[in-house]
Amino acid sequence: MENSPIKAPVMTLTSGPVAIYPRVQEALSRPVPYHYDPYFLNFYEQVCVKAGRALRSDRPALILQVEPAAAIEAAAASLISPDDVVLNLASGVYGKGFGYWAARYCKRLTEVEVAYNEAIDAGQVAEALRANPDVTIVSAVHHDTPSGTLNPIDEIGAVVKAHGALFLVDAVSSFAGMDVHPIDAATDIFITGPGKCLGGSPALSVLDVTEAAWTHMESNENAPRASILSLLDWKNAWRKEEGFPFTPSVSEVHGLDAAFDQYLQEGPETVWRRHDLTARACRAGIKAMGLELWPARESIAAPSTTAVTIPGNLTTEQIISAARQTFGVMLSAGLKETYDKLIRIGHMGPVAEPVYAVTAIAVLGAAVRQHGIKADVGAGIEAALAEIPNGA
Description:
Blueprint lengths: L10 E2 L9 H7 L9 H17 L7 E3 L3 H12 L5 E6 L2 H13 L2 E6 L8 H10 L5 E5 L1 E2 L4 E2 L2 H11 L2 E5 L18 E4 L12 E5 L1 H8 L31 H17 L1 H22 L15 E5 L6 H12 L1 E2 L1 E2 L8 E5 L7 H16 L7 H10 L6
Parallel strand pairs: 1-12, 3-4, 3-5, 5-8, 8-9
Antiparallel strand pairs: 2-10, 6-7, 9-10, 11-14, 13-14
């Protein structure tokens, strides 16, 4: 912005939105066609099919013209009826937050809640379902980004399926950064978006929806229609002969297509490996530097975000400001219950590369040292480098 005293960051290492791939940037700049032009109708259908293939689903994906938080709320409004009993899994700020939406629509809400540095295991879900046999919908967040923790979503999905409930999963900040897919997790609504590990722009959402979920929505008299929160309005929009409930964001669809091309052409397994390597190097460096990871166990730490416990009596503002003002690097704070408790380093999309882990260790270590906290930055960098094989 002209005359702005605040410069743009040199580097963004946040938990999202993230830096986007150059091919996505190029795609966003393409000419904007009329959305009913035959070219775009055909293109949109192809993107939905491509997205479904990337999700390893047997159906085209549903694209909503909203960012993922709105899509998750839309899923709650569309799926949950006044007859439904919902079991919500709350292992963090976002997991807990879905419960507030679910409570608006359901007959009864029950929750499994753990400390926000923990994860929920399949045994806890099975126990909750035994205690609440009338549960019809289970909701969960795979990677609760404000805590940097992962729930074992495939194992939980198997328990939910055996119970006969529908399973709604927020995989916004995990899909494309690790091996997670709707069929493997037995989900009925699987929600993700391009603004995290796909390295795209954050304005759209991508969903996989089963026939069982569509049937449930269609029987829900309270499911929104003619609304931004309606999944049903967009059910068949992927078909080029169907048309759209309202004007889609044409430029964003171009960007989404490029993000999926980047992911599929690089190879999903390759993409997952570099997310995992970057996170492992970062965690090793954080520990060697003398700081503590936020997750209770490293086994539940996500490969897309490293959460670091704020040391001593420092504040979020002190660390974030030092990193930003001295080095031009933007890190993420915690949110709500985790604010002033942790700092988050994102490893998503283009910055899921080991060099960015080394940078983050140096910047975070220097930031806490500015405020009198001991941090052996050299040891941290050496530990991170030791995790990186030659040629990585």
